[in-house]
Amino acid sequence: MTTVSVIDEDASNAAANQHFSLLVNGVREYAIYMLDPQGRILTWNAGGQRLKGYPPAEIIGENFSRFFTQDDRDRGVPGRILESARKHGEHRDAGWRVRKDGSRFWADVLLTAIYDQEGTFKGFAKVTRDETEKHEMQERLRASEERFRLLVGGLKEHALYMLDPGGHLQSWNEGAQRIKQYHESEVIGRNFSMFFTPDDRASNKPQRELDIAAKLGFFEEEGWRLRKDGTRFWASVVVTALLGADGQLKGFAKVTRDETKRHQANIDLQQALDRTIEAEGLLRMQTRELENRVAERTGLLSAQGDTLRIMNAELEQFAYVASHDLQEPLRMITMHLDLLQLWNRGNLDERSGESIALALAGTLRMRTLIDSLLAYSRLDHIPKSFDPVDAGRAAGEAVENIGKIIAEREAEVTIGRLPQLPIEYGQLVQVMQNLIANGIKYNRSEIPTVEVSARREGAQWIISVQDNGIGIPAEYRTQLFQPFRRLHDLEEFAGSGVGLAIVKKIIERHGGQVGVVDADVGACFTFTLQAV
User: Tell me: the pLDDT tens digits for 54-81?
Assistant: First the structure.
């Protein structure tokens, strides 16, 4: 007996359609639905409801254009999409779409034209996926890349560019064009060794830089580089190795800054320092010569009546030379040091700034020495006066003149009752000022004290200036009043070494004497003048 199985084709197709419908309706990540030829919605799946917020009853029969933004509808975008899909069989699109609640999402869309077995156009199948998160990530990446491009491209003070592992240029910014004068089209693909001097290229220096950067992660140096026109500039360079996720070398980032002005400023500074040292040496040599002449002439005073006049004449001549020959180069050195500080404000490193400060301090010491020397030499040209003046008032004015020094050291100055003295008033103020200031300066006490007093012995007044300072050993007391004779280093106690010599000369011009007497604490300077 033969059994014949008959397959119901219609039933089979119905089952297949049912299975397909279940499959489509169960997809939740995609909105999958059918459109008629005019774009009206014929079907709606769970993914469509989840993605766009409409249940089937609200959306079936509506035109799919309601998912587009108002701007897209005004521009006729939905109709053009349908026309493109029908003409080409499908249309892929990405753009903003609108949910039921009015919120937007970025949609990735595929629209496919549908034909039946006879080739009759029936409508469209539309698949939509929400790609908002991916789109926003891409936008953030694009914006970040754009900001980085604008940042690098806009840097004008730095040449910033990329090299491949072999040193060939891969990028070029505006700062590189400004510093090195090449346009981007002239350098991309060429080796960066083109910026080095012939000697550096001959010694393979460019490749050594890359080798060191690849080994250590970076390379940093300063040196001469070449512009397009062949001129040199002093470059500060940093080369950084770029490694991929796999640790392999992908290339290099190179940053170059033109430091020619700073480099030249350092050269000018060194030259100025050399001139300062030379000038200081000249001043010391002339000072020693003066000391030798003063000592020589002093030894002959007892035998030669005219010796003092000869010595004074030579001293005046030296003072003229010091004023004319030393003041001018000293002013020039000071001016150039000040200009170096002004031109390079903010660019000098700490060492260069300290060097300029030391040089300026040196010129200040030289100016002080010269001024003190001139003051000493000019005393003979100041008229002597033996009219009585108030010594107490002169001492008070001296204290006012050095008020800053007294305040800084928190010193205490006591002025006793002082007599009328036969001396030019201004010179008496200078004598008092020099002696009181010395008592404060050569003093290591927490509170320096100076006491000025007077006593009469016969036809003379003896004025004493007593301090609580470091004191003066007896063997050095005869040397104190010689010009430029110092008992201490400048680093320990500043000064020109002329102050006491000026005191001695003023008092002796008015018929008195100056000396140092024993004291239990500190030093006691005295000077005598005739009583009136």
Answer: 999 999 999 999 999 999 999 999 999 9
